[in-house]
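EI: anyone free to look at a 461-residue chain?
SC: sure, send it
EI:
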Amino acid sequence: MSTRYATYSYWLETCGDDLTPRPALDGTVDVDVAILGAGFTGLWTAYYLLEREPSLRIAILEREIAGFGASGRNGGGLGNRFPVGLRRFAELFGRPATVDLQRVLNGVVDEVAGVAEREGIAMDYVRGGYLRLARSPYQLDILASEQRTLEEYGFGDDAVLLDARQVAERVSVVGALGGLYSHSSAKIQPATLVRGLARAVERRGATLYEQSPVTAYTTGAYPVLHTARGHARARTIVLAGESYLSRFPRLRRKVLPVYSLITLTEPLSSAEWQEIGWEAREGLSSATHMVKYLTRTADGRVLFGGRGAPYHVGSTIKDDYDRHEPTHRMLQDDVRAWFPGLRNVRFTHTWGGPLGWPRDYVPTVSYDPAEGLAAAYGYTGTGVGPSNLFGRMLADLITRSDSEISRLPFVNRRGRNWEPEPFRFLGVRYVQHGFEQLDRRAEATGIAPGGRSLAERLTRH
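SC: here you go
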């Protein structure tokens, strides 16, 4: 069984942890808090709950093993980005709230690093920053606009625009015309972090039940997480299953599973790395609609990931969807296009998984004490950093600890629902195809998309 779980990502394969599942829930347990999901959100929530009230009895129910989902399969980036941009967030919630949110997000990287150090979690932490690259003239305008926005909201010192020469001094990417560099990001081995967090909450008294898929949940006077073999009764239940929450009928239109896929090269030679540079191990990404993201791993490989795998009708999630040959082949072609010296490189791993996408890109953080129900989900692929913040927010809400973060205005906000099927399927597939066409056209002409296409209007955020 542990060997099977290691096949889901390079991170799980190399985290150095025994992936043998913990015992499943068998029977009924009575606790103070029952959490669905042993990924970053669920584990951070448990960690901070026990920090605030060490006597709490906490049970965590996981469908597979800790870190099985996005927490153990992502691109390895730990940053301060939010799914909704600063301008759009200000339109929704006002400028003061936007400044407050970004300020607390800017502290996430140090917070995670501090916990990892205290708990003895060796997660290959490197604070190399984050570099968005422009490989077409119109993308330079996009990055310049992002920098102006940061300056407008008081965060201009966090990022700096680089010209082609300055980018080349950091990393040699063919066609790079410039970039926007932010120092508030790091690279980690995410599976090591999530598995270490699982052990940390167990040391504090929480119980983790693995291979215990929650089949239903009850709210109200007697909240319960139900499984086929038992029940976790609690004063509060927490839904922290990200895209997998779409399997519950009540949440099917709240969060959409969209697949992000990754390919990984063999370890490069010292000569190949000398040609590429990339010594600081910055996170790299493209300034395109169909985001591409890159990591230099601790053992000298290039990780290249991106969207593009098709959405499946009914928001279905299957292991078969983790690998999509056309998308993985496209990503491998991109590696060779970005780094021509790697034209003969061998690829050793391909994997993927679903991320949770809210209809309006605003994640859910909620707590209803009358129903005994708390939830956090919908990171749209940016969850490694914000999940720490959301775990702290849920811990404050559940323990009735008034705090700056628990008063952020998107807490308990009721977001838009996704359209019912088949309109959801048709719309998402149309947007996926539309973004691919927009990127191709813009890169061919050097002219930025105008924001007037139907795909852009449907996804404005």
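EI: The chain has a mean pLDDT of 95.
SC: 👍
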